[in-house]
Design brief:
By secondary structure, this protein is an alpha/beta fold. 46% of the residues lie in helices and 9% in strands. The chain contains eight helices and five strands; from the N terminus they run H-H-H-H-E-H-E-H-E-E-H-E-H. A five-stranded parallel β-sheet has the order 2-3-1-4-5, sandwiched between helices. The two termini are 16 Å apart.
Length: 235
């Protein structure tokens, strides 16, 4: 209920601002900011509201921690968590530390690519892959492309979704590399609500639709645009 109230209040506030805004450019920028806020609210409402109840009762966070515990109990598998949102990367890092006793590495656009650095991308990945037993690494969906391979990880959680299905699939492929010896499990946790069409539910459907279009060799899986999310605003 707290999450839903924050979500619907954000849409109502945007609508009232729209009535006072002038020009399509201003309205478009406002809608983009709203969509980013709705994405944060779905994934981790505490990142938008300082109410501690938002952190402790966020359904996606609870699902993630339960999933990690299940993986830890049943195997020594390793997990990649993808999100391009840096605030959420740090929050998830602290949650894993608090619940599992180790601090997972974060690899994003700030992580060094220089071969001589002890904290470069490949060094951090090698440390994960050499570690014994269950482990987790947090990667930016948009910052890891070709050359980043994590074949020792066989669970891939897309905690937040990328607007470009091709980039999201490329991120998933980091676990599908030569040397992978286990079945790979890919998770797309999606916040839904019985009373409204959520941002995440809309994004999931749009990405699946774009992937279907991409199967036609005459079309590409292009990035989603703000206009694709009109259904979210009439909920």
């Amino acid at each position: 209920p707290l999450q839903r109230d924050l979500y619907t209040h954000s849409i109502a506030k945007w609508r009232s601002q729209q009535e006072m805004s002038e020009g399509l450019e201003q309205r478009g920028a406002g809608m983009l900011r709203l969509l980013h806020r709705l994405k944060l609210i779905c994934a981790l409402p505490y990142s938008v509201s300082a109410d501690l109840r938002m952190r402790d009762n966020a359904p996606k966070v609870k699902w993630m921690l339960e999933t990690l515990r299940r993986i830890q109990r049943s195997s020594d598998d390793k997990v990649i968590i993808f999100t391009e949102l840096r605030d959420i990367q740090r929050e998830l890092q602290q949650m894993v530390l608090h619940n599992f006793g180790f601090k997972p590495f974060i690899i994003n656009g700030d992580t060094s690519t220089k071969s001589g650095s002890s904290q470069n991308r490949q060094s951090l990945i090698d440390q994960l892959q050499d570690a014994e037993g269950f482990n987790v690494i947090i990667l930016s969906t948009v910052a890891v492309g070709f050359g980043v391979n994590v074949q020792k990880a066989n669970h891939v959680i897309h905690f937040t979704r990328c607007w470009n299905p091709a980039k999201e699939d490329q991120a998933t492929d980091r676990a599908y590399r030569i040397g992978q010896t286990k079945d790979v499990y890919v998770y797309y946790p999606t916040v839904r609500d019985s009373e409204l069409m959520t941002f995440e539910e809309t994004l999931d459907e749009l990405l699946n639709r774009r992937r279907a279009l991409a199967r036609d060799m005459l079309k590409g899986a292009s990035e989603l645009t703000v206009a694709d999310f009109e259904a979210v605003l009439v909920s």
